[in-house]
Design a protein that fits this description.
The structure is a single chain. This protein has three helices and 20 strands. The chain is mainly beta and 341 residues long. A hairpin with a 4-residue loop joins β1 and β2. InterPro entries: Peptidase_S1 (IPR050430), Peptidase_S1_PA (IPR009003), Peptidase_S1_PA_chymotrypsin (IPR043504), Peptidase_S1A (IPR001314), Trypsin_dom (IPR001254), TRYPSIN_HIS (IPR018114), TRYPSIN_SER (IPR033116). This is Chymotrypsinogen B.
């Protein structure tokens, strides 16, 4: 005899409303669970701005007990929907790199500019900021960069490189001021990347006027969150195609009173976006066979990631070309950097 039963219950401690549809028969009983409401985040963590940076900058949004994979307090995040994925095969985008603490797990991404230089987000390498601008940088010798990876836990010792120096932008401003500005940093490796790793570099924009237009479709890749309730990051590299929106539209989506500086670029996150773990990674376009041009660096976005009618924000690389070139040449970037406008 076939029977059908529907049960509704509330898990008070977790703040989850769960509908259980139980369908059974003598041969193949099944239980189907659907979540009608997500975790009540405000009940367990401090109330903060409705957006977040996506990498190691965790001091504004912390769990009280758990430790993260790289030793810092772990951020809490709920991803409402999986990202709209673009198929990514091994070595399709050989410039992507993974940042981790030595022997630890991935926490940020970056882009390989040369055989010794990686571009990433400042908030990936500046875990603390005090008095608005005074900050400390992570200890370079404690961290390493993985190149030529598709599976973030794959490869071998040849794929991991020690860090010689880390140079965040001197005018980097973090979310303590409810804004993220100049979110860019250059990592220099202790030795050149081996060709055997199958790593490759990405091109910089030709000049500061090399910018995509609203409506243009760009690519982003990373090992950021794709699941609904779980903290696990995907093992394999993921990708999404994003649409550029105007600065005015971006500011409107981020909330009242916000403005968008020319040093940032925004994309629509309706159905696809970056999320926690993607920080420092690339927003880019394909300019030829196995040739890519870096447009942006993943910086921050709406804390629910793929919530409709919000935006994802990237550092606009074209506006920092003098700063990048000065940092690569080991000159003081301060005289060459471009501050936000």
């Amino acid at each position: 005899m076939k029977t059908s039963l529907s049960v509704c219950m509330t898990l008070i401690s977790a703040g989850i409303h769960v509908s259980l549809a139980v369908k059974s028969n003598e041969e193949n009983p099944t239980v189907v669970m659907s979540f009608s409401r997500m975790l009540n985040i405000n009940a367990t963590i401090p109330r903060v701005a409705p957006w977040q940076v996506f990498g190691q900058q965790r001091q504004r949004w912390k769990r009280s007990t758990n430790a993260s994979m790289n030793g810092a307090p772990e951020e809490s995040v709920v991803v409402l929907n999986p990202r709209l994925r673009v198929s990514v095969s091994a070595h399709d985008y050989p410039f992507i790199v993974s940042l981790r603490k030595r022997g630890g797990q991935h926490f940020c991404a970056g882009s390989l500019l040369s055989d010794t230089h990686v571009l990433t987000a400042a908030h990936c390498v500046v875990p603390e900021l005090t008095n608005g601008k005074r900050f400390r940088v992570i200890n370079a010798s404690d961290y390493e960069v993985g190149v030529g990876l598709h599976n973030r836990n794959g490869g071998n010792w040849r794929n991991w490189y020690a860090i010689k120096s880390i140079q965040p932008h001197e005018e980097y401003i973090n979310p303590d001021n409810f804004k993220v500005l100049n979110d860019i940093a250059l990592i220099t490796l202790t030795k050149s990347v081996l060709a055997a790793t199958k790593a490759g570099r990405i091109e910089l924009p030709l000049n500061r006027n090399t910018n995509p237009q609203p409506g243009d479709r760009l690519l982003t890749i990373g090992w950021g969150k794709t699941t609904v309730l779980f903290d696990d990051l995907p093992e394999d590299l993921q990708g999404a195609r994003l649409t550029v929106i105007t600065d005015t539209e971006c500011a409107k989506r981020l909330g009242k009173g916000r403005t968008m500086p020319t040093t940032n670029i925004c994309t629509d996150n309706d159905g696809a976006t970056t999320c926690s773990g993607d920080s420092g990674g690339p927003l880019f376009k394909v300019i030829g066979t196995k040739k890519f041009q870096l447009v942006g660096i993943t910086s921050y976005g709406w804390k629910k990631c793929t919530q409709d009618k919000k935006a994802s924000v990237f550092t606009r690389v074209s506006q920092y070309l003098p700063w990048i070139l000065a940092a690569q040449a080991n000159r003081s970037p301060r005289a060459h950097g471009r501050r936000h406008q």
